[in-house]
Write a structure and sequence with these properties.
Length: 400
Amino acid sequence: MTDNHNDTTGIDAQLLALAHAMTDLDHPVKVDMATWAREHLAQHDRVEADHESRFAEADWQRLADRGVMKMINGVDVGGSGADLATMLLTLEGLGHGCRDNGLNYALVSQMLSTQVALERFGTPDQHAQWLTPLMNGELFVGFGMTEPGAGSDAYSISTTAEPLPDGSYKINGHKAYITFGSRFDMALVFATTDPKLGRWGITAFLVPGDTEGVERGLNRAKMGMRTTPFGDMTFTNVIVPGSAVLGAPGSGAAIFNAVLEVERSYVFITQVGAMQRQLDDAIAFATGREQGGGPISSHQAIAHRVVSLKERHETARLFVYRAAMASAAGNNVSMASALAKIAACDAGIASAIDAASIHGARGYVSEYEVERDLRDAMGGLVYSGTSDIQRNIVARQLGL
Ligand SMILES: Cc1cc2nc3c(=O)[nH]c(=O)nc-3n(C[C@H](O)[C@H](O)[C@H](O)COP(=O)(O)OP(=O)(O)OC[C@H]3O[C@@H](n4cnc5c(N)ncnc54)[C@H](O)[C@@H]3O)c2cc1C
C-alpha cells in the first residue's frame, strides 16, 4: 500500500486515483475483479458451507495466486505495492463478485491487521518468516488481543509474558473470539510483561502455532460470517525467544492502535461490494416477481426499498473512500475511520433487512441466499472495535 507522505506528486496522484475510484461505480479494476470472482470463487454448496461453517481453502489459494493478499504490502517487503485506490477497487470487486462474505472478511481481516503490522513493525527476518508465506496464502494467522475479560477495554488484558534471564519470554493466557483462532499457523499475541504498567506494559509476540503449550480452540459456531474460521487461542507456559517480539518491548498498544485504525477504515470494503450485489439481486427479483398482475417493482413500497439499497450502498462506499483520501493526504484518520465503520456497518444491516423484505418468504428461507447477508452484516457491530466504541471516538473528537 503505497503511502509516501513526503512526496507531493505521489500524494496528488493517489488522491486523483481515489477520486476516480470514488466517482466511477464501474471502474475497470473493480469490474475485472468482480467478473473474475464471479467465475472462480464460491461456485458450489454455499448454503451448506454456511450451515457447516466450512472455510473455502481452495478459494483462499486462488486469491493468493491472483496476488490479492500482496496488494496491501510494499514492494520492498515482497508485496505488489499497489496504490490505495487499486487495492480498494479490487477488494470492492471481490465483495461484488464473490458470494462468500465469510471468505472475504477473513481475507481483509488478515491483510489489514497482521500484514500491516508485520510490514510496519517487523524485522527483515520476520518478514521472510511470516509475511512472505502470508502473502502467498501458505499459512493462517490469529491476531490475538481480545480475551474473555478484555474486550472493548482491550488494554486490560491478563495474558502475561514473563521475561526470562536468557532474553526469552514465557507466555500464559487465553485469547477469545479470534478470526482464524481455530486454525492458525502463527499467533500474533498481545501480552503484558507487567500488568501494573497498563497499556505501556503490552508487547506483541509472533508465536509459531506448533510451539509447545499453544492450543487452537474449536471452530466456534456463530450467527454469520460462518465460513470464517473463528475460535480461541490458549498459551500455557509457552517459551519464545526475544526475536519473537514484534516492534519494541512495550510497544504493543501503539502497534494495536495503528493497525486498528487501518482495519476500521477499510474492513467494510468487501461489504460495500456485497451491497452492490444485493442491489443487483433485488432489482432482478423485484422486476421479475409478479403479484396482482404486474411486477412487484411497480409498488412504490418495493421501489423505495430498492432506492434505499442504492443510497446506502453509495453512502457506505463514499465513507470508506473518504477515509482512504484522508490517509493518502496524511491527515489524522481517527474520525474518518470511525465514521467509515459506523456508516458502512449500519448501512449493511439496514439494507440486508430491506433486501430480505423485498424477497418475501424467499428472503427468509436460507436456500435463496438473502437472509445470510443480514447474519453476516451483524458481526460488523462488534469486530474492529464495536460501533459504540467508534461513536465514543467521534464524540471525543467533537469535544463531547
Ligand atoms: C466476527 C468477529 C471477529 C473477531 N475477530 C477478532 C480477532 O481477530 N482478534 C481479536 O482480538 N478480537 C476479535 N474479535 C473480538 C472483538 O474485537 C470483541 O468482541 C470486541 O472488541 C468487543 O469485545 P466484547 O465482545 O468483549 O464486548 P464488550 O467489550 O464486553 O462489550 C459489550 C457491549 O458493551 C458495549 N461497551 C463496552 N464498553 C463500552 C464503552 N466504553 N462505551 C460504550 N459501550 C461500551 C459494547 O459496545 C457492547 O455493546 C472478533 C469478534 C467478532 C464478532
